[in-house]
């Protein structure tokens, strides 16, 4: 029997909520510029950069291996949250379902990111995706630094 789980984390960033939110919901093509040691490319697979429901393919390195993550994004503009649901890629070889839920909360001059990774294992003995959470947090930190350096984003 598969086992569902959830991992949570919070991250304080310096970026204004609107600008940070925009990178992931409308400008994901900037992410490889911000985190080139981790994310090699982000390409539109179906749809476009700005439309919710579009599918993007991420190529990244984790634990020394190159992997692909195809995700469909859903966006809640009012609450500054987005959900990336896996629809293909290496993650689905180990997890029946996998989604990243991020909420960007304005806090002073910066923001607070609330991150959830919801998943369901294919096999009970499989480990929770702690390494993927660490990768996501590392990418988010890199994007924060990139946004702060590139005011035009």
TrEMBL record:
One of its GO terms (biological process) is defense response. Residues 2-150 form the Bet v I/Major latex protein domain. It comes from the Eukaryota. InterPro entries: Bet_v_I/MLP (IPR000916), MLP-like (IPR052006), START-like_dom_sf (IPR023393). Signal peptide: none annotated. Belongs to the MLP family. This is Bet v I/Major latex protein domain-containing protein. The lineage of its organism: Eukaryota, Viridiplantae, Streptophyta, Embryophyta, Tracheophyta.
């Amino acid at each position: 029997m598969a086992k569902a789980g959830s991992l949570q984390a919070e991250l304080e960033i310096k970026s204004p909520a609107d600008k940070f939110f925009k990178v992931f919901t409308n400008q994901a093509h900037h992410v490889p510029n911000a985190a080139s040691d981790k994310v090699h490319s982000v390409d539109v697979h179906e749809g476009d950069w700005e439309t919710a429901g579009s599918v993007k393919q991420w190529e990244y390195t984790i634990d020394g291996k190159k992997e692909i993550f195809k995700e469909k994004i859903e966006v809640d503009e009012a609450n500054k949250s987005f959900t990336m649901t896996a629809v293909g890629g290496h993650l689905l070889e180990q997890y029946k379902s996998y989604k990243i839920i991020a909420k960007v909360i304005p806090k002073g001059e910066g923001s607070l990111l609330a991150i959830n990774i919801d998943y369901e294992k294919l096999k009970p003995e499989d480990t929770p995706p702690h390494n993927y959470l660490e990768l996501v947090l590392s990418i988010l930190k890199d994007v924060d630094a990139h946004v702060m350096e590139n005011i035009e984003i």
